[in-house]
Amino acid sequence: MLDIFANYSIWAILGTLYGFLFGVIPVAGATTALLTVFGFIEIFKADPYSLVVFSMALVVAVCTGDLFSSVVMNVPGGGGSAATMVDGYPMAKKGEAARAMSASLGSSTIQGLFWGIIAIVFLPFYVPLVMSFGTPEMFVFVLLAMTCGTFIANQYWFRGIIGLCFGIWVGLIGLDPITNAERFTFDWYYLANGIQFAPLMAGVLALPELWEALRTKMTYMVSPKNNWQQIKQGLGDVWKNKRDSFEGGAIGAFVGFIPGMSSQIAEWMTYGRVVSRNKNPEVSFGEGNVKGVIAPEGANLAHKATTYVPTVLFGVPGAPFEILVIALLSIVGLDLGSTTLLRNPKFFDLLSYGYMFALAMSFVIGIFFIRYATLITRVPVRYWITPVIVLIIWSCVQYTGGWEDYAILAICAAVGLAMRYLKISRISFILGFALSAKIELLGLQFFTLYEFTDLLTRPISVVLLLCIVAVVVKGLFFNSGTKIKYV
Questions:
Q1: Residues 6 or more apart from 77 whose CB is under 8 A from it?
Q2: Confidence band, pLDDT 50/70/90 cuts, at residue 484
Q3: Among 45, 172, 236, 445, which one has the highest count of C-beta atoms within 10 angstroms of its own C-beta?
Q4: How do the residues of the chain divide into helix, strand and coil, expressed in percent and rounded to 5?
Q5: Handedness of CA 67, 68, 74, 79 (dihedral sign)
Q6: Domain residue extents for the chain
Q7: CB 12 within 8 A of CB 51
Q8: Who's near 316: CB < 8 A, 6+ residues apart?
Q9: Cα distance between the two ends of the chain
Q10: What is the DSSP letter of 47?
Q11: 183 secondary structure, DSSP code
Q12: In angstroms, rounded to a whole number, what is the distance separating the alpha carbons of residues 381 and 467?
């Protein structure tokens, strides 16, 4: 452990600072932060494990930084802490910004610690479960991931299917694994190796949101005078409402275990739960009730911790941002879900170290940052959006460095804006793209070696099939009230 501390602490510190910065920037978030890492990925190739620590610390710190812009600007950081805005922003307008941020930070950190120990620290103990998965089980598990992203991650299941199918088709662009012939490339040799993750994720997810942020009007927020008193009060609120915090963490952790689900779903589920249980609150929800920030923030880091379970063990993204984690680590030679990595104790040790280090450091930074958070509102949007967009573009044109990199990024951005306008699920699209190669390979193996009826003779496959049916029923008949920003 001393060797890890000596050799990788610098990466944990850098990842935490870098992630916290992107968390504070409104609309940026984990996806945007991870996208920019593609621009300097060469730094990590000498020691791939440094990227394990850096990326994990970055994700944790981003989630912590998200809450500040939600409270003081009424704009979530990259989609995270969206539900926190409902009561956090009214609290800020009443002069209780520090209390709202302190309560959010305390709830997020406590639940992140508890569920992080269960999900991240004990991750190696779940490996035997993965070893019991054969081709049929993995095939059905990937189908379950796609089903969850299509029928639960958005309100419009039919548009989710369209997004999923479109994503799978885009993911199949390149070389046919059987014939080695080009397919769907339109005779453009540049596409022979497929579309790269960075420009696609940037164009479809990040750039449309940053563009919308440029048109957002920010309200100037006055800094409270009694910051430390409010900070103490906010932490006390977490203890008084520990049940709401823990319930938020439990919901966030559960949603994180389900592949393809965004944290927004967990946050809105938690917020709806706390509102329904408190029928006659002293302060109405939506007008500055502190429980309205404690509950959803309890789900924030708990969700991020458990998303690493399907991501690491199966190579199936537990959340949209995990797709970038998989892509980044594969570039440096670490293939998530592979047998080699699952038997590598150093990988799991560094993953746990990066998580716990960033959790502690982010909390300390967050507490001292509270008194300055309202200053974010004084910075014109164009001053922080413009450099972020430039950094993303630079990171996405490292593949060849030629005009074709810019062309594919522009095409992906146009597709992302069109999907946003038409309300075609971008989460389903990205999930289909990320899992296209895996579902093709598993499908070929399954239908060559097995019959569909073989699934009914394997207990794990039967359970997964029942989960698929339950997800479809939930999406068709019980998903109309999901309150999430459409992605």
A1: 22, 23, 24, 25, 26, 27, 28, 29, 62, 65, 66, 67, 68, 69, 70
A2: very low
A3: 172
A4: 75, 0, 25
A5: negative
A6: 2-477
A7: no
A8: 141, 142, 145, 259, 260, 310, 337, 435, 438
A9: 41
A10: -
A11: E
A12: 44
